[in-house]
Specification:
mainly alpha, 70 residues
Length: 70
């Protein structure tokens, strides 16, 4: 339920072209999803590249969409 709510807020932030907000929410969503995966893998270091990749990827895409197109 929490992740679904975050996903809705993430979608709103992306459509409003808010790069920091959408990137942070996206990284937090992936972090929470990773907690379930970690119960199987048991190596918490896997969360670091997952969260960073999510944050950077979302930030770059939304930031690019903020620029006016010619």
């Amino acid at each position: 339920m929490i992740i679904d709510g975050m996903y809705a807020y993430y979608t709103l932030a992306v459509t409003k072209k808010q790069p920091v907000t959408s990137a942070t929410i996206g990284a937090l969503m992936h972090f929470l999803i990773a907690l379930g995966v970690l119960s199987y893998v048991q190596n918490y270091l896997y969360v670091i590249p997952l969260a960073l990749g999510s944050w950077v990827g979302t930030y770059l895409v939304v930031k690019r969409e903020q620029k006016p197109r010619i």
